[in-house]
Amino acid sequence: MTVDPADRTRLFDLASVLLAYPDARLFSAADELRETVAAIAHPEVRDRMTGFLDWLLTTETLAVETHYVRTFDLRRRSGLYLTYYLHGDTRKRGIALLTLKQRYRAHGLRLAEGELPDLLPVVLEFAAAAGPGDGEAPLRQHRRGLELLRCALEEAGSPYRHVLDAVVAALPPLTPDDRAAVAALAVDGPPVESVGLAAYGADVDAIGFGPELNSGSCPSLESAP
Fold first, then answer.
1. Among 96, 159, 128, which Cα is nearest to 16's?
2. Residue 193: which pLDDT band, with cuts at 50, 70 and 90?
3. For the domain that residue 69 is a member of, what is the CATH number?
4. Which domain range does residue 205 map to?
5. Structural contact between residues 111 and 101, judged by C-beta atoms closer than 8 angstroms
6. What does the DSSP 8-state code read for residue 216?
7. How confident is the prediction for the chain on average, in pLDDT?
8. Residue 89 exposure: Cα atoms within 13 Å on the Cβ side
9. In the chain, how many domains are there?
10. What is the mean pLDDT of residues 184-192?
């Protein structure tokens, strides 16, 4: 069942909010969040987002904040910066960031000071604002990175996996080539050309912060050629 444009707009706009740091403003908007999810017609997407909100809005605020930081800020393999998955720490990433910024500028989207254009909440905000075609192009371009992030969240058992499940459900499915590339990235990590940077996947788990991620492949990749 295809996710129609109206649902994709609602989903991407909502996901951009839910994948940002969970501050007091987010928790104070509980009723509005519920109403937005209820308005999504696609049953799978609505159920995924409902499942996430059930966790978000019934969990102690400090626990949510701590989980967010440990999940997205302290683990490179589940970071929210999409160009890293595709280009790693290479010069190509700088070019990709500039291209994204120019695309946003052409549509009137201005970034906050210090904000990188490949941050997933920003990419989702742009998709919701600019709509199908040019607006959703960055999500399609980084479909492999989104899948790798989704797998990392699933392996970690993070409730944020529900948001990523919903987002990828609204995008074109992975091709066999995509699955092979994601499987390779899961093993080898993105390309690296800079000296002195930590290897892909190295994070604070190695020094005892938070639950460790499983080393096994994401179930969706087990059938990859």
1. 128
2. low
3. 1.10.3480
4. 5-221
5. yes
6. S
7. 86
8. 10
9. 1
10. 79
